[in-house]
Amino acid sequence: MIIDEDLRIRFEKILSLRDKTMGDAMGMMYEKISKDELIATMPVNENTSQPMGILHGGASVALAETLSSVGAWLNVDEEKQIAVGLEINANHIRPVPMGQTVTGIAKPLHRGAQTHVWETRIMNQADKLVCISRCTIAILKKR
């Protein structure tokens, strides 16, 4: 995994908040973590497929929102702010059969004081676009 060293402690902190998360259940594995780009892989298996034996659209959305939320969280002042999903959309371009792996690449389009907008491109093993998603994250004051 490639991670900016100044983010390692923050990233490990977010992973330690829960023993198990949706990302764990779906087999998400981080490949790169930085304030400007997050990359993770996810298998297409019994946990991420739909009855027709292809990647479930909801699994793609879960991957996109996970990457967007973690990316936003790495960009805020964790002592004063929290980052939470506000809206997400996704266009599913092509199917991916069980047994393959997809890669999500999330990058910020906007990092404002009250909202962030992240784009996630999910690619198949042949580096073809599977899904494109845009996620708006609300930046809130901690209570």
Structure write-up:
The chain is of the alpha+beta class and 143 residues long. Helices cover 22% and strands 41% of the residues. A seven-stranded mixed beta sheet has the order 1-2-3-5-6-7-4, covered by helices on one side. The protein has helices spanning 8-16, 22-25, 57-74; strands spanning 2-3, 29-33, 38-43, 81-92, 101-111, 115-123, 129-141. The model has no long low-confidence stretch (mean pLDDT 93).
User: What strand line-up does the widest sheet have?
Assistant: 1-2-3-5-6-7-4
CATH superfamily: Hotdog Thioesterase
* Cα-based radius of gyration, to the nearest Å: 15 Å
Extract low-pLDDT stretches: none
Mean model confidence by pLDDT: 93
User: Structural class of the helix and strand makeup?
Assistant: alpha+beta
Short structural description:
By secondary structure, the protein is of the alpha+beta class. Helix content is 22%, strand content 41%.
Give me the secondary-structure topology:
Elements: E1 2-3, H1 8-16, H2 22-25, E2 29-33, E3 38-43, H3 57-74, E4 81-92, E5 101-111, E6 115-123, E7 129-141
Parallel strand pairs: 1-2
Antiparallel strand pairs: 2-3, 3-5, 4-7, 5-6, 6-7
Keyword list:
single chain, 143 residues, alpha+beta, Thiol Ester Dehydrase, Chain A, 7-stranded mixed sheet, 3 helices, 7 strands, 22% helix, globular
